[in-house]
Write a structure and sequence with these properties.
Helix content is 44%, strand content 20%. With 304 residues, it is α+β, with helices and mostly antiparallel strands.
């Protein structure tokens, strides 16, 4: 793999034992792309089409295609919520040069800040190696950069929280008073309830350590009563009040993001579970993620 270090444009080259048309598909088809890079992707494969490559729910690349031809795919490249390299601030080109029955893939990444070039150099080394493997039908092996399970859960919760904030921000005022079919709450009360789930991220760590008095002592009736009480309080909140609850989404999720997979198997005795026990993974996937998914779906329907 060749590197051009003296140029401000980062360059990588790798020979892939496949025709350019085969390689091309792995640059424009989301199902193929995530086999070598990213956890999920949304690609609109036409010039001007949007690109979103989600690595873990926190690191999200956004750009658009600037050229798609049989032997070249170009796109803008940047990170969501990143001042140093935001969407559209750099440009990546994949040239697919025929070499007999193989393809010389030449990647150029222009517009990178100098301080980011080592990081991106390592990244493109990693991902172009995986690209060559999957295109050739080889096992690329486990991705050492793949996100942990807790990171994926925290990342999806983060995206759902951000969607909730956007829905509440953009909704017409009268729509916020509409009541959800599932919960019977106003849209503002439902938004406040969704924001309240951020507190569960902290309980995941307490569950791992077996030290949460709340989890240990709460019954199902206690949880139902607490939800009803909070809904009553939330009913009087304004849009501004509720939006303020989403001011710090990442903070509560930061520690959960770092939880190793094996720690999700740890847990503690509880009263609200029929089994009398809950693991950190069950808490993260159920009361946190699944409940937020359901409530956000309900909010979408209420504001539609």
């Amino acid at each position: 793999m060749a590197t051009t270090a003296e140029s401000p444009t980062l360059t990588r080259e790798v020979v892939i034992n496949a025709a350019p048309a085969t390689v091309h598909g792995f640059l424009v088809d989301p199902e193929k792309l995530v086999r070598w890079m990213g956890h999920s992707a949304r690609l609109e494969a036409h010039v001007g089409g949007a690109i979103e490559i989600n690595y873990n729910g926190f690191d999200i690349m956004r750009g658009e295609y600037t050229e798609i031809s049989p032997n070249r795919v170009s796109m803008t490249w940047g990170w969501e919520d990143n001042e140093a390299l935001g969407p559209g601030q750099s440009h990546v080109t994949f040239d697919l040069v025929p070499q007999g029955s193989s393809t010389l893939l030449r990647l150029t990444h222009a517009g990178l800040p100098i301080e980011m070039q080592p990081q991106f150099g390592d990244g493109w080394d990693h991902f172009t190696t995986r690209l060559a493997a999957v295109v050739e039908g080889r096992d690329a092996g486990p991705d050492a950069w793949a996100p942990r399970k807790a990171e994926l859960i925290a990342g999806e919760v983060r995206q759902l929280m951000r969607e909730t904030r956007a829905l509440l921000s953009q909704a017409p005022g009268p729509a916020l008073a509409g009541k959800s079919a599932s919960e019977g709450w106003t849209a503002t009360a439902l938004g406040a309830h969704i924001a309240g789930h951020l507190a569960l991220a902290g309980l995941v760590q307490e569950c791992i350590e077996g030290r949460s008095q709340f989890l240990a002592n709460a019954t199902l009736d206690d949880l139902d009563n607490a939800n009803a009480e909070r809904a009553g309080v939330a009913a009087s909140l304004t849009r501004t009040d509720v939006l303020a609850l989403f001011d710090d989404i990442d903070g509560p999720l930061k520690a959960m993001r770092e939880v190793p997979d094996e720690d999700l198997e740890k847990g503690m005795a509880v009263k609200f579970s029929p089994s009398g026990y809950i693991t950190a993974g069950q808490l993260a996937e159920g009361p946190l993620l699944q409940n937020v998914r359901e409530h956000v779906a309900s909010l979408r329907a209420t504001l539609a």
